[in-house]
Design brief:
The protein is α/β, with parallel strands linked by helices. Helices cover 51% and strands 14% of the residues. The protein is globular, with a radius of gyration of 21 Å.
């Protein structure tokens, strides 16, 4: 098997902390992606052995795919640009296949710098998809990564991997609904106990 493709996840770290973790988790647990990819988060990378002016760029040099998540914030400037913007610029210089997702149905509330970055992305000819939260991000991200692996690297899921991935996602979906159902049953039981036990009323 060829070496796993390193997928660099770029965004404003704190603002999209949950989404970053969700994407990394998807890559690390989906049967197909797990076989062929490794998520790269700067905050999880080993500390550099030598001082670097922009250490967050070092990991990008060894990556095969650049994945950008944008929300409202631009991030703190490190000189002329934010870390996220420097990462985007370097990824384009390296001609890395790039995937862009933008959070929110509209651009209302975004900083001016973020809107300028989006304009730059559009001008470069990149398309992007919008998402609402990490739950609707994950299936779209899966489709985007599967497409990139096939188109750019000739890596396609086998029938077994597709079946295993579908089974895994179905199991997670079923577990989530079981947990929701259990919570609803417990809530109904608690309400019934309160209604049927007058002794509890006096405590209100």
């Amino acid at each position: 098997m060829s070496a796993k493709k390193r997928i660099f996840i770029s965004s404003v770290q704190k603002e999209l902390e949950l989404e970053r973790a969700a994407v990394a988790g998807l890559i690390a647990t989906d049967p197909f992606l797990l076989q062929h990819c490794t998520p790269v988060l700067f905050e999880k990378e080993p500390l550099p052995s030598h001082p670097a002016s922009r250490p967050y760029l070092d990991s990008l040099w060894s990556c095969a795919v650049y994945l950008l998540l944008i929300a409202n914030e631009y991030g703190h400037r490190d000189g002329d640009l934010s870390a996220m913007h420097y990462e985007y610029r370097l990824a384009q210089e390296l001609q890395l296949p790039s995937i862009v997702f933008i959070k929110g149905a509209t651009d209302a509330g975004r900083s001016q710098e973020t809107n300028e970055l989006i304009k730059e992305i559009k001008k470069a000819g990149h398309t992007y998809k919008r998402f609402h939260d990490r739950e609707d991000l994950k299936p779209e991200m899966l489709r985007a990564l599967v497409r990139i692996l096939a188109e750019e690297f000739g890596v396609e899921a086998t029938g077994a991997e597709m079946d295993e991935g579908a089974h895994s996602r179905s199991a997670r979906y079923s577990l989530m609904h079981m947990m929701i159902y259990a919570s609803q049953v417990a809530l109904r039981g608690s309400l019934m106990s309160t209604l049927l036990c007058p002794a509890l009323w006096s405590r209100c």
